[in-house]
Amino acid sequence: MPVVDVDPDELRELTGHDEKSDEELKSDLFNLGLEFEGETDEGELQLEFAPDRLDRLSVEGVARSLRYQYGDDTGVYVPDTNDPDWTYEVEDTVPEGRPYVTGAVVRDVNMTEDVLESLIQLQEKLHATMGRKRAKAAIGIHDLTMLKGAGVADETNAITYRGIDPDGDRFVPLDADSDMTPAEVLAEHPIGPKYGDLLDGFDRYPAIYDDLGLFSFPPVINGRRTEVEADSRDLLIELTGTDQWTIDHICNIICYALSARGGTIEEVEIDYPTATGPYEAVGGALVRPDFETDTKHVTHDRIETILGVAFDQREVLDLFARAGLSASVVSGDAADDAATDIDDDLPASVADADGLVYAVEIPPYRVDVLHPIDLIDDLGRAYGFNELEPRYPDIGTVGGRHDRTRLEDATRASLIGLGFEDLLNFHMISAEANYDRLNIEPGATAGDADRRLVGAGEAVEITGPYSEDYTQLRTWVLPSLLMVLENNTHRAYPQDLAEIGLAAEVDESQNTNVAEWRSIGAVLARNDATYEDAKARLAALCDDFGVDLETPPTDHPTFIDGRAADVVIDGETVGVIGEVHPAVLVEHDLELPVAAFELRLDALE
């Protein structure tokens, strides 16, 4: 979860509530969903929150949310913008893997050292989250006074986004004293190895020029000439990436933060070389930032059903306004004429709804509102979840543990009795961790058999993941256990770890197209770990549940040849056991032998 450092004095200044103590601020922030995690050495509050509210990655965004909560601001706020004075010219030499650009000019920012630190933190957090460590979006913020725009036909200023040879033009990057080519930056600059892999396979590198030459090398580093300092007042923002929607919304978040610091937003023109290919969906010419608001619909009945509170129409409209949204009634027999604007083009999901339907306007910095339930969540926070009164359900039932849960608990107790330490890991993982680092290919089969290797199923991919570390559901548990061992090399050995957790793979025979199951994974990391040690533990586990175990030899690339076997229980192959291959150990920085096994939980029923 993202953690943001927030100066409480700045928060009081930006909210206009100097009377608030630190403890009161912590309580108010908790009601917004921001959890206090501690303090820095400088006394800043460390706040953790869900990564969906990216507009709160800065003190300015947190302060905005508090002002809405306090009722000082209401409804959707859209900053005024001045007409464009700068054009971003995009040449057809731009690499296909990074074709999009956006940005804005912000003038008269009340910049200080604290504001600069907040801006840098916002940039870093956006890179790490929505930007996927710069793979999807890279942000450049420059001192506008250090740029010289080349005049174009309408006499506006222009910068140019183009592709260049790796050994092409030279520039002085940040934290350097001499000029370098892009290739030299990747090879010699400290930041080069960190982001150089984002340009693997590129024949030409992305670069941004003004009339004086190269000043930005996205997604790696900016030039020193345009570095923003505490006395900078006018800023140029440029973002490049793989998706126009993503970079546009990141730009909006930055613009809103700088607007809170007194900045005046100035539009820029984006001039793409064509309206075909990757630009077909966005067109050949754009004006940015895009502060157009979105609208979603939600019914009054659904709000009351989800929150369990009876609201009147005016109260709902007021709560939406206090959540930073603007709502109006667009349908319903009970609608107040003064607040009604009947919409004849409602979505099918609400067009036939009985009673009130609200059209809710969403500000351009909100990237998390995807569904009406998100609107209800905002309304509930504005109302105050602590104000909700618990009530008994209308239907009485007798609770009890599910049979699978009882089996899982019994298995966990047995594993602990065998000396394993019980773990709980994330169910999501990256493709690299799930497959590559364990030497297996998706869809691989066991030798000549028409049976898929354990762990080689087709993973369920996450649409639009927020982090490249969590892009799919894991197909087996062992990768998670090896990552735990990798992160605990500083701990004492032996380390005997086990987990019972979710695994899944694509399966078109299921009505959801996904097969899910609970898998048992276990590892023994010690200087004398062997196949026999793992088999003894597995045999004891099977004996506890009265099932017959067989372990015929098998080949599995995660394990050493000749030291691996299938796990066959009651005649059915349900897993694998063996000594982990040295190449896999090296990949995880492990210096001791590891023996492991994995099998399906339901095999013990």
From TrEMBL:
Q: What Enzyme Commission number(s) does the record list for this chain?
A: 6.1.1.20
Write down any Gene Ontology CC term.
Answer: phenylalanine-tRNA ligase complex
Matches recorded under NCBIfam families: pheT_arch
- Which InterPro entries does this entry report, sorted A to Z? aa-tRNA-synth_II/BPL/LPL (IPR045864), B3/B4_tRNA-bd (IPR005146), DNA-bd_dom_put_sf (IPR009061), Phe-tRNA-ligase_IIc_bsu (IPR045060), Phe-tRNA-synth_IIc_bsu_arc_euk (IPR004531), Phe-tRNA_synthase-like_B3/B4 (IPR020825), Phe_tRNA_ligase_beta2_arc (IPR022918), PheRS_beta_core (IPR041616)
Q: Domain named B5: which ranges?
A: 291-390
**Ranges annotated as biased composition (Basic and acidic residues):** 9-24
Q: Which GO molecular function terms does the record list?
A: ATP binding; magnesium ion binding; phenylalanine-tRNA ligase activity; RNA binding
Which cofactors are reported in the record for this sequence? Mg(2+)
What is this protein's record name? Phenylalanine--tRNA ligase beta subunit
Q: Which UniProt keywords apply?
A: Aminoacyl-tRNA synthetase, ATP-binding, Cytoplasm, Ligase, Magnesium, Metal-binding, Nucleotide-binding, Protein biosynthesis
Quaternary structure and interacting proteins, as annotated:
Tetramer of two alpha and two beta subunits.
Region spans: Disordered = 1-24
* Name of encoding gene: pheT
> Does Iron show up as a keyword for this record?
no
State the family it belongs to: Belongs to the phenylalanyl-tRNA synthetase beta subunit family. Type 2 subfamily.
What this protein catalyses is: tRNA(Phe) + L-phenylalanine + ATP = L-phenylalanyl-tRNA(Phe) + AMP + diphosphate + H(+)
